[in-house]
Amino acid sequence: MSKELLSRLGSDDVHDSIVCYSSPAAIRRLLSRRREVIDLRAALQNGSLTDDELRRHVVELMHGFRPGQRFDGDVELAALAVAIERRSTDFAEEFFHDLASLKLRELSMSIGIARLILHARQDLAKNESRVIKLGEPAHQSKSFSQPNGRGRVYAMARNAKKFKWGAM
Amino acid sequence: MFEALKLLGSSEKSIALQTRVGRDIANLIELEPGYQQVKAYERLLERHGAKWRIRKPPTGIYNCAGHVWASRRTSILDPREWQKIIADDGYRPLGDGESPMPDDIVAYVDRKSAEIIHLARIIFLADGLAGSKLKIPWAASKWNSTAGETCHSIFDAPYDLGDHDIRYLTDRPL
Asked: For A12, which residue in chain B has the nearest alpha carbon?
């Protein structure tokens, strides 16, 4: 099931939906409305797909990379980037930082979209507030969205040793 | 995840490109299309291209903005760069009652985001319906940085014209 969800990101339908566009912003917008991307996002949220599976898939996909040739998995990688753009996990952080830092025209589309998303995530992080409640047990810690829907407010107990960002 | 690719260094290539007032324009000389891109372009022609005239088969290097503003030498991918060129190079929208002319630019604009999503150069004005004095502009389009070039009526484009506006840009004085 997860394999199928991931392979759908590189389907002809997805390629066809962006064939008349070249700006990363427009492609990101179009991909975010695709059923394939929405389904993948849902699978990640409900836990039927994990970051480890995504990582394995990306590693496998990149085996098709050939220097000097346009990468056939570029659209699939771009769609994956859009699917996880609001995800705050170690995998997503690594994915966006690593992909955005590449300077390879073999995968110019996915790199362009990763740079755009990374920029947006950094802007969002600047807008983030943290509320630290001293003396509250760790299990009562919680996170919640700001009223304007941008960013999140995290409540963190003083005795919480390891703080993890919640999946957004 | 991308460790091996990092070792390759940079394969990005660009050229010195500036607006008339000397602002740099970010650009990228794109690679030739691969199998997936050629197939997607062929499907585009099947779906939308019945009345198009093919000028050039799929090619890399330039996109629509690179076609219009960089003489097919490179791709200008970021619409913010497009806006820099429009501002610095003296383009203006056509006013009401003004007709487009060959070598003006047609811009397809996403109505929700107000972003230009495609640019093409007008190449000629075709006769309209019988008895009508209105001419129909035809444009030469490079649909993306791996597509071919086609000539088409500006109304015969693969965008939903319910969601997109057609606007004209010209460098002609008022």
From this structure: B40
Higher pLDDT, B4 or B132: B4
- Quickly count: other Cβ atoms within 10 Å of residue A160's Cβ: 15
Q: How confident is the model at residue B55 (pLDDT cuts 50, 70, 90)?
A: very high
Q: What residue in A sits closest to B14 (Cα-Cα)? A: A105
CB-CB neighbors (< 8 A) of B34 in chain A: 69-72
Q: Measure the N-to-C terminal CA separation of chain A; round to a whole number of Å.
A: 23
| ipTM for this model | 0.93
Nearest CA in chain A to B158: A20
Beta bridge partners of A144: A153
In three-state secondary structure terms, B149 is strand
pLDDT at A138 over 60: no
The reply to whether A119 and A135 lie within a common domain is: no
Domain housing A64? 2-126
Question: Would you call B8 and A112 a contact, using CB atoms and an 8 Å cutoff?
Answer: no
- Greatest extent of chain A over all pairs of C-alpha atoms, in Å: 58
Chain A partners of B83 at a C-beta cutoff of 8 Å? none
Q: Does one domain contain both A116 and A132?
A: no
What is residue A133's predicted lDDT score, i.e. its pLDDT?
A: 67
- pLDDT on residue B130: 77
Q: Kindly state whether residues A25 and A101 are assigned to the same domain.
A: yes
**Quick check: A55 and B1 CB within 8 A?**
yes
